[in-house]
Specification:
The structure is a homodimer of 347-residue chains.
Chain A: E1 2-8, H1 12-23, H2 25-32, E2 35-42, E3 48-50, H3 57-65, H4 81-89, E4 95-100, H5 112-121, E5 125-128, H6 132-148, E6 152-153, H7 165-171, E7 177-183, H8 186-196, H9 201-210, H10 219-222, H11 225-239, E8 249-250, H12 257-266, E9 270-278, E10 284-290, E11 304-310, E12 316-320, H13 325-342
Parallel strand pairs in A: 1-2, 1-4, 4-5, 5-6, 8-10
Antiparallel strand pairs in A: 2-3, 7-9, 7-11, 9-10, 11-12
Helix pairs in contact in A: 1-13, 5-6, 6-11, 8-9, 8-12
């Protein structure tokens, strides 16, 4: 079955995604009867292009990385994200998917939410690695997608490529999540691990920036906003909370954090930034001292983990023991396969 | 869509399963359009029954628990497992599912494998909590099921209700598992945790038997056979290994284990029974000293965890932080929903 894709945002994650698609082209075709074409790319700073017969996205990625603009590759038939989405909507492919990877705006989740709205209104499925849509508007967007018979998926929004939303939706039928508790921000976990060992804050943050793991604006990590957006998304999806990241009780790393982390470690404890939530309560992101037997206390460096408590199973945890951009790109691929699976055997 | 079920084996897990089904009846109907009836139960020691119009399995469970026989509830129309499967095959329900929960036979996986064969030959799907079929004959049974358009599912065979096989199949598309490493036997992990704290072997084992978590024959746990069967199933499913538990390099708990566990803990290490495998190598089950930073070293008591390394993602781990019979029953329910999902929207 042919799937036409438009990419809204073409940063590190999206460029890794198009290369991963190329690498997995044969498995996607053989295992999932998924034959994709990329027909449009919209960026804020590197131009925009739409080619209804498909374009070489890996070439476009290299061109952008070399400082070029997309409109230099071919004459653009669309000049912004909304025009690219409108153009995708005219495709005759049985599945049309908008791949949204713009950066998180922590004020209100826009324009990512507008991109999702435009896609759904045009009959296009949406897969996104942006936390904004699920963190600010999950209930409304999910209902809109359902009513239109479309998918709105965002596996990459929390713990990158490690399945969280898919885990619950696809493998835990009839179970309801009652509580969650986890380490969901790699940058702050790496910094806390460094601080407790007596390192300074700045070089630890710089390492995460050099790896492309810290947010473009690192205060989103350090002040707990990234974790708060993830906590809001988890609460919205698993508990119908209907909240935004601004409703999350939030704490970040501050001037006194290094001393607290060192003192905790000296006592055999670990200071970690824990995101947690429970049905009917406001989620929180808080620096928390963990006892050594706690699974989350054993996570060092960039590792992430989420513990889910459901009404049927006891606590189960899923952990990401490494972390790089490929994970987020893989989450987009995984969501794309879900869109394809939902379309059934036809085509 | 109506689903008729026959239960082969009616021990603790199967009796918990029928009660869980009753508890989840409304969610199964509302969320999955799954309307089940139990039409047959076969046991070795408590009689056999088949009632084509459905029977009250919760009542049957209570009757058996009070020492009664199934053939006292209603005149049996089938006298053994194979007759019950043959009778299920005559049902006009659009989905017919054999729920296999007999105990593991570590010599050759029979008669569980024969039950799976009989079910598939009769056009019935199979869900099983028995490790034998996947550990001894996965490749052949999977191919038989595929050719017949039927499901052969066994989520409960490893880590009870925590999704392992579903995790990879449903949420990790195009990824190939290269290695696995984990703690997959609750009884030996509980005993090792007790031994390292200076407790004796016998009372620790007795606690696991009292909870119904140790195998009926506890030597299957203690000698590493249960873990070996799980390692064989993982290698067969994820790596097309085509092996049996007898091909697994196996170590169990022995007379010297207590001292090793205490000495390891005194040095800050942990002695754990680790099941591991890699593509192209024989899997193993071995007592292994773990450094404190190892995720598996932090698992005490009955906790289980499995770390998967795939070609796309780095290591990811999934952990079961508690453990009881309900988990295995939930795995059967989860597999039943998978059978229903695969049947699509019709009905």
């Amino acid at each position: 079955m042919r799937v036409d894709l438009a990419l809204i945002g073409f940063g590190n994650v999206a460029r890794r995604f198009v290369r991963l698609l190329d690498e997995q082209r044969h498995r996607l075709a053989d295992d999932h009867a998924l034959d994709y074409r990329i027909v449009g790319i919209a960026t804020r700073r590197h131009g925009t292009t739409h080619q209804p017969d498909g374009l070489d996205a890996a070439l476009a990625a290299s061109h952008v990385e070399a400082g070029g603009r997309l409109d230099e590759i071919a004459a653009p038939r669309a000049t912004d994200a909304f025009e690219v989405i409108a153009a995708l909507a005219t495709s005759t492919a049985p599945l049309r998917v908008v791949v949204e990877t713009t950066t998180l705006d922590i004020e209100n989740g826009r324009p990512a939410i507008d991109h999702v709205d435009a896609a759904l209104a045009s009959g296009c499925h949406v897969v996104t690695a942006n936390k904004g849509p699920a963190a600010f508007a999950y209930g409304r967007l999910h209902a809109t997608a359902e009513a239109a018979g479309l998918s709105f998926l965002f596996e990459g929004a929390v713990m990158d490529g490690v399945p969280i939303f898919n885990l619950v939706r696809e493998t835990m039928p009839t179970a309801a999540v009652q509580r969650f508790r986890g380490i969901v921000n790699s940058t702050t976990n790496h910094i806390l691990t460094a601080l407790e060992d007596g390192e300074a804050f700045a070089p630890a943050l710089a390492r995460m920036q050099a790896l492309g793991i810290a947010e473009a604006d690192p205060s989103l990590d350090v002040d707990g906003w990234d974790a708060a957006a993830k906590a809001a998304a988890l609460a919205n999806v698993f508990m119908d909370a209907g909240i935004t990241p601004h409703d999350v009780v939030r704490e970040g790393l501050g001037p006194g954090t290094a001393e607290r982390a060192r003192e905790a470690k000296a006592r055999g404890q670990r200071l970690r930034l824990i995101a947690s939530g429970a049905r009917g309560q406001r989620p929180s992101v808080a620096l928390t001292e963990l006892a050594p037997g706690d699974l989350l206390a054993g996570l060092s460096g960039q590792a992430n983990a989420l513990i889910l408590t459901t009404d049927i199973l006891d606590d189960i945890a899923i952990c990401q023991l490494g972390g790089d951009l490929c994970h987020t790109a893989y989450a987009l691929l995984s969501d794309l396969v879900t869109v394809r699976r939902r379309a059934g055997a036809s085509g």
